[in-house]
Amino acid sequence: MIAAERFERAAVLGVAMAEELRRLLRRHAVATGDAVEGMVLVDVPYPDAAVVVAVLDVAAECFGERGATVEETRQAALTTLLQLAGFDAESQLQVASPGSLARS
After folding, report:
1. If DSSP codes are grouped into helix, strand and coil, which group holds residue 2?
2. Model pLDDT for residues 16-27, shown as the tens digit of each residue
């Protein structure tokens, strides 16, 4: 397998992981009345939580994300991962507002 093919396969896997993470987060999103504008509360129960944590840890390592705490590092990785997953306007995971997350 040539390097370009390996890179393409890795990119496809990365996008698939980002989309799966968005699906899990959207599935467990909760609408909150007192949340800061643009913020969504997500309470991911086990076993989905284990998947989310594993993906964020791998993403943080891949992206070279660093933070003062593990949670800050995961948050930085989540931000980057969601930016990568958000490039596709056709994605079923694109949402118009935080309130629409809870209805999915």
Report:
1. coil
2. 887 888 888 888
